[in-house]
Every structure is written in structure tokens, then in C-alpha cells.
Amino acid sequence: xxxxxxxxxxxxxxxxxxxxxxxxxxxxxxxxxxxxxxxxxxxxxxxxxxxxxxxxxxxxxxxxxxxxxxxxxxxxxxxxxxxxxxxxxxxxxxxxxxxxxxxxxxxxxxxxxxxxxxxxxxxxxxxxxxxxxxxxxxxxxxxxxxxxxxxxxxxxxxxxxxxxxxxxxxxxxxxxxxxxxxxxxxxxxxxxxxxxxxxxxxxxxxxxxxxxxxxxxxxxxxxxxxxxxxxxxxxxxxxxxxxxxxxxxxxxxxxxxxxxxxxxxxxxxxxxxxx
Length: 275
Description:
The protein is an alpha+beta fold. It has a single domain, classed as PPM-type phosphatase domain (Phosphatase 2c, domain 1). It has eight helices and twelve strands. The model has no long low-confidence stretch (mean pLDDT 91).
């Protein structure tokens, strides 16, 4: 299989490792990622986190990633918008295709799994495939993202430094409020964003297993807690900008003791950096 290549001027570095709690229980890595350089010159990067408590969540994450990459190619692959209005319309189509294609493909997956396992229709429910999704299309100076759930997106701005772009909401970790691609509240909690910034020179997408290791929490004046990307997040971007650093180095970082001790979850990251 030929590895996907980033569009001209950019480079992908990826890694995905099984979390310590999954290793102890014998579970597989339920995260998934996808990357591709589009013919238009844009890049698409996608991460998805299958819910650890759901039996078929790794399959759900794989479906989520596949449909998001296909939707990005459909909307942005043949040509790019020329202004803000065009990007707003494209972002709406991207969101719609991600969600509708996931539902369609998941129905097909469920029917296939029922046939393969000799089960009656309805025995396998969509909730068994629960997964979050973060899909990003980078077409500098434009960036478009669609997010369902608690994956996070950090951009590196020069000048300006690292900035947590998504999720832009208060800390609700472990509160039982994670929304999945299979959740009834998905439409309400699906975030779509458009950014135009000439200074963005690197992008990082991650599943929620890296919150504790890479982000910090600040308290607002009203007492609510918010995640943010610390200034020293830049060291990760600087390290992975080197052409000598690759996927094995990313996986070594994610498997390191400091990262393993921060969370028992699977850990997946895509970094997209300018050459």
C-alpha cells in the first residue's frame, strides 16, 4: 500500500498507540486516523476515537474516518473556493456529507455484520459502533473542520504560538457527556469551523487520550474550567518539523512513560507541518 502524501509544501507525521488500560485488558486500539493530499492542493486529516465500552467501536471509528476523507475529496478535491462565502458553503456540504455518509455506510456495515454472524436484523444496534470524529481540511490560508465529540485540534501560528481551536468549550471530561457519531444529539453538538489565517504553519489533531499529557486547564473568572494549548506545545511542532523525524518517532513519544502515565486511553495524533 502506498502511503498517502501531503500536498506540496506540507508533511504528515502520524502515530497511534494502544492505551495502557486497553493493553492490560487485552483490548485492541480503538482509535483510527486517515490522511490524504488532495489534487486541489488541500490536505485532509482525520482522527476518530471508538468508545472503549462499545463492542464494535473500532469499526465505527474506521467508518467515520473513511467517510470523512471521501467527503473532503468530494467537496474540496477538484477545486477550492475563492472567498469566505464559498468556504462557508463548502463547509456546510462537508459537514452534511460526513454525517449522511456515516449513517449510510454504518447501516451497510450493520447489515453485513448481521449476515456474517448469522444474526437477525436489529440485534446489532448503531450504538455498538460509537465513535467521535475530527476532520480537518487545510487549504492555506484557509482551514475547515468538522468535529463530533472530544478530539482536539491545535494550530501553530507564527507569530502567536499554539492555539487550541477545538473544542472551544468548558471542561466536561468524565462527566458522561461525550457525544458520538451514533448519538441522538449528534446534530446539535456537531461543530463546524472555518478559519482564515496566513500565519498557521502547523496543525495537530488528536484523540482525547492526549488531553492530560498535552493540554492544560485554566479557570475563567466565573469559575468554569477550560482547556488550552500551553506555550510549550510549540516544542512538539518544532520537533516534528524536522525531515528526519517520522511516524516511529511519533509513536515513541505517545508510548513514552510520561504520556502513558497521563491517561489509560488509546493515543492518536496527526501532525501536519510545513516543510
